[in-house]
Amino acid sequence: MSEHNALSTNEVDLVAVSVAGAVAHPGFPGLPAEPYRMAADGTAFLLPTYGGIVYNVSVGDRAFGWAADCIHPGVSIRQADDNRNRGLNVFACVGNRARVMTGGAAGATGVVTGKSGRFSEQVIVHLPREVRTRMAVGDQVLVRAEGVGLTLTDHPAVSLKGISPGLLAALPAQEDEGHVAFGVTAQIPAHLVGAGLGLTSEGGSLHMQSTDRALLAELGLDRLRLGDVVALEDTDSRYNHGYLRGARAIGVVASTDGPRSGYGPGIAILMTAPGGELGSFESPDTNLAELLDVEQ
Amino acid sequence: MDEGLRFNFDDLVEMAVTGDVSQPAVRRGGYVHWPDGVGEILPGMYGITYSARVGDRAFGWAGDHVEPGVSIAHADERADYALHYLTCIGNEAEVVTGLARGARGVITGEHARLLVDFPREVLEEMTIGDTIQIRTRGRGPRLESHPGIEFKKTSPALARALGLRTEGGRVSCPVAMELPPRIMGSGAELNAEFVDQDLMSGDRVLMTELGIDQMRLGDLIGIRNVDHRFGRSYRTGWLAVCLCIHGDSVMTGHGPGILTLITGPAELLDFHLDPTANIAHSLGIRSQA
Description:
The complex is a heterodimer.
Chain A: E1 17-23, E2 37-38, E3 44-45, E4 75-78, H1 82-91, E5 97-100, E6 109-115, E7 123-126, H2 129-132, E8 140-145, E9 159-160, H3 165-170, E10 173-176, E11 179-184, E12 186-188, E13 206-207, H4 213-219, E14 229-236, E15 242-253, E16 266-273, E17 278-282, H5 288-291
Parallel strand pairs in A: 11-17, 12-14
Antiparallel strand pairs in A: 1-4, 1-8, 2-3, 4-7, 5-6, 5-8, 6-7, 9-16, 10-11, 13-16, 14-15, 15-16
Chain B: E1 15-21, E2 32-33, E3 39-40, E4 48-49, E5 69-73, H1 77-86, E6 92-95, E7 104-110, E8 114-117, H2 120-123, E9 131-136, E10 150-151, H3 156-161, E11 165-167, E12 170-175, E13 177-179, E14 197-198, H4 204-209, E15 220-227, E16 233-246, E17 257-265, E18 269-273, H5 279-282
Parallel strand pairs in B: 12-18, 13-15
Antiparallel strand pairs in B: 1-5, 1-9, 2-3, 4-5, 5-8, 6-7, 6-9, 7-8, 10-17, 11-12, 14-17, 15-16, 16-17
């Protein structure tokens, strides 16, 4: 992981702690006879969805066009107990090192690339494709959780959310008299922010909307890749996610698009500020795959 | 209602469901948080609300998600879903147990519980656990002349009371105010047949600028460029007519609850402003809304 900025932080004060989860099994809602979910146009669909070991979708790949509903790239982990799972989901930070502790790939290392929110609540881990072929559902993955409590010393109005110090240092950034801006591949307007609004901003994700395909194509948002760093305009994510003019949230595309209303790609929010203290600038190809130097 | 607008009301099936008056519950930790993180403990959801009634203001209460009237639920999850999915706004309710037995009320909203309005003197006779029975009618409505317009949770009584009119082939509904789609928040993760979507009131200056802070419980609300058929999302050229069912919230991404009643493409459906468009008045719940 290479450093792209020299922003001052309280990194030396952070406590690194272990959290772990087991590779999650994909699940389906409802009765065995009713496997369908519903698309934004009201049609029933049956497609792979979140959870499990995903062999052929990785961070860096396209976020749109898969025959899938909000797929997590790589491996998804969770704890069976909700309270423990919350500990995993909140304390694991994007950019944290993960290590497979049991099974055929024991010892292999990867990195946290995202999280998912209400109804799934999993942590998304990148592991090299070859490693994934040796893994099994239920294998334990340990995360060295480090990042909760992280602050930008010179920018106290910016709240950092679930970002590792290493990833923060690797982001393209510009600092100017009390104002800090980060490089992003896209800016998402407030009217295209969807599922996750009003829900917690400690862990989980905030989805963009993708029902209006023509508008997405017009804005170029349908070219987003998994792992892209993006900005959400007029979005205050300090305590829950919500609308506020002048606020901004920056996050990474953590899961793919899906057919459901309100559920375009899921975005794991990394930072936010309420009153213009946090900016963003165009920086094509700002993507976790390169920032974290992940091994495909 | 415009005489040319004909619904399939004769085909709708009328069924009874019940719910019990809920006891207020506080979530673990107790606090709700303002946008700057400050925590506060506030009443508002569940139970019998004596001081806030449909027709009253939606903003300014020392409460969070204030549910007007009586909030009822069913203890069995499946039966509770039937209570949610079958009950329509404007359906009649009757107290079937306790001191208020026989008293009549009207459904005014669907939040995590169903919200029922009763006259104030009836509230004095009610207690937590009293059973309310609802004659549900309104699932499956179709406007024969405009089948491309979808109605949700609209009882025949409400459909007649909305004041729908036709203008150039389009059906237009009076609304008390219009909301911009960019402030529609919590509830985006749910299907559009279930409960409401909060407007996001965190931009307090915007609430005043647009007059949104004048909203009343029971107001009809218009939103352009949204599709509320199967979820609630941004879509150019579609719109929705909704109902304000609960009060404001301090929490980011939350605010008054906006429940979908009608949605359709702009070629078929429209709304027009009428500051008096409130169900407390049009359903005859309160003479002076």
